[in-house]
Amino acid sequence: MFSYDEEQFLKAKNFFVEVDESLKSMGDSFSLGTITDSEITSGISQLQSQMSGVCENVSFVIDEIKKVEDIIEYYNSISDSKINDKDSTLFDGISLSDIISNLYRSDQRDAFRLFNKYAHNDELTDSQKRNINTFLQLFNNYNVTDNRVIASLLNQSSRQGCGYSVVTNILVDLYKNKPDDFKEKFGYSLFQDDIDEKGRINYDCIFVDTFLKSNAESIIGLNNRQNGIFFTDYSVTFEEMGETLANVLGDTAEAVVQTCPNDISVETYEKAMSEGYDYAAIAVKNFDLMPYGDNPEVPVHNNGGHWMSVLGVSEEGNAIVSSWGYEWELQGGETENGENDGGLVFFDISK
């Protein structure tokens, strides 16, 4: 549990409430083209100055500072030509607040749910149809064209794909302010055309792409053998997480990975993040998840092993994690000592 000065914390808390409202307004105005470059620059400078003064010696709001810094980085990365290009994919009705508020929302079950709707001829939105076409093209890249095989593989990924959701979340965060680079590398858009409960981020296609890249050798050319798929283990082991991320990043970035087998302590997480690691994941079993933030779900107990993105630490001193598309407070949990089947993994990514 962090120790902090109550008066200073309340001052910081009120400041971030104001920042949140300012950024939402700025982001909406920016996407509509009603705010100028100079106004953005002035707003950023003012926020940086205020943030520096308010947050001095307040450890408790480190995670909130990171969110603001991400937004500042997002604005600073945009060139004048991009600002003036109203036809750009990045600003085609997509507000900054929509992107930032919907990070770490990958749910390994969603791709199978969508394909199941397609297989049963349910009505789909135009964006969902485009996602299905992307699914089919991604599978075709591995010479998989039988829809029964595709459905079987996506079913397996929905049950064993939590590790791929962690990697998907990292990819979205890495490319959130570089959609053109993302499309050039991966061949499809980072954003979808329709707004859903995940905003505009194209989590489903990124998840499917990550799953396929990670299992290319066992999947390529797999047709008319859907029954055998259910005897294949596609889950990411603790030792494989670093390799899984590297396979997806390719030669566009390099990841330094630190594994802490059988260690799921908040103290280890805080130490590693203070040393400069960009992302953290945890593999754990026999744990409880309590809904956190805007999560509308009910509490969950899970006996089996599960990968989750680690986002921060709650006021109660528990890890805040992302799983199944929402934020949760992780309570309890264990790994199997000596088996290296769980623990913390940290990623330092050079872009």
Description:
The chain is of the alpha+beta class and 351 residues long. The protein folds into 3 domains: 6-100; 110-236, no CATH class; 253-350, no CATH class. Helices cover 48% and strands 18% of the residues. It is built from 15 helices and 9 strands. It has helices at 6-32, 37-54, 62-76, 80-84, 96-100, 110-119, 126-140, 147-160, 162-175, 179-186, 203-214, 216-219, 226-229, 241-249, 266-274; strands at 191-196, 199-201, 254-261, 279-291, 300-302, 306-313, 319-323, 326-334, 343-350. The strands form 2 sheets. Strands 3, 4, 5, 6, 7, 8 and 9 form a 7-stranded antiparallel beta sheet that branches. It has a two-stranded antiparallel ribbon with strand order 1-2. Strand 7 (319-323) and strand 8 form a beta hairpin. Helix 7 packs parallel to helix 11. The radius of gyration is 21 Å and the shape is globular. Mean pLDDT is 78; it is low at 56-60 and 78-92.
